[in-house]
Amino acid sequence: MLSLNGNLARACDGLPRRELLRVGGLSLLPGVSLPRLLQAKSLQASRLPGPARSVVLINLFGGPSHLDMFDMKPAAPASIRGEFKPIQTSLPGTVICEHLPKTAVWMHRSSLIRTVTHSLNSHHPYSVLTGWGQGPERAGVKPDDHPSMGSMCQYLGRCRDDVPGYVFMPAFPGHSQNPRPGAHAGYLGAAHDPLFTLCQPKFERKGEFYDPVLPIGPSLLPALDAIPDVSTQRLVRRRDLLRSVDQDFTAAGVNSIDSMTQFQRRAFGLLTTGKTRDAFDLLQEPQKVRDRYGPDLFGSSLLIARRLVEAGTTFVAFNWECAVETHGCHWDMHNKNFQMLKFNLPLLDRMYDNLVGDLDERGLLDSTLVIVTGEMGRTPRVNGKAGRDHWTPCGFCLLTGGGVKSGTVYGRSDKSGAYPESHPVTPGDLVATIYQLLGIDPATTVPDLGGRPVHISHGGRPIVDVIA
After folding, report:
1. Does residue 4 lie within any of the structural domains?
2. Number of domains making up the chain
3. Which terminus of the chain has fewer CB atoms gathered within 10 Å of its CB, N or C?
């Protein structure tokens, strides 16, 4: 068996040869295999300097309309340009939607990409979080899914031990309908899944799919009493044993070697650190700050995101989603596009302004990358129900802080906003850029379930023109 204590003779790669061979056959340690151990040395070498220590990603679930937000076409026919008017921003010559006035003030500090393009016509954050943008449409969460960026940060050891490294709010993607892929660790193993929060929002009335009603209440930590067969004493014993195992692998860069289930590991973290609980305790914030963010699920979750960043969490993903069938607060606007955007855009404007302004005031914006995007754009032509349908060939991504080049607009779409006219950007390019900003070599490969090396950016390259 694997030695847990004592001095071992080690080879030049830091691993004892005899133990390395034995570990190759272990099955009780999820996420650990001989290919992963052999690759650990190269993963250590992939560390690069990066200005961003944390990421807050806001995914607008359903597919936000680029034409009605960040890539307006005021000279186009009414059937394309829609109802909204453009306004000037703090970046000369750049206009965005009239319903985003607070966001407009920050454009000189941001990089706006207007040519995100792919072929994955699916409602889930798979392309956004993993960088894989190819069809066919995916459904459900599978062990061979590509891992999310947050999971990759945990796998590569870019997260602290005293707080969750990767948090997904307000719950797993698709919680209001069915599980959807994108947020999980996939073939890296469940040990690198995020901490999924819970939500139990209240609504002032029942809405409909195209009649949005604001969800009230924050994202919540899972209750410890809901996790069966876990005791503090038992978890402490496991921790001590696993720390001994970890010592034999530290030199190889292997992280999160344990035999706990995902929920047991999260429970242990909650039991042994107060930093996580404190981050979710909004009563520690002044009343005026809570009032500014608002009591709704979206605003209060971003306040928690800011507190998690302060505590040291590396990757926070917020998926704008609630009970879409009964309360309609989403971005999938086949009908009543403009009516729904009049509800959603002021919310987003307030959320973004609060988060970015708060981070800036606290000296955290330069080290925190804030991302606003969605899984697709919407059709250039308004349909007969005053809506816009799915459109993957062109969308947007707004990047602020965390080492991005201030006051940049990258890429140009054609006159109807249908296709990129210059500088198309794939989801792989986006995640490569984010990895670069985090100090992770975007050319790194990791093994899939069969031990085959997979490029973490799926062939994408960093967009050098949006990196400061």
Report:
1. no
2. 1
3. N
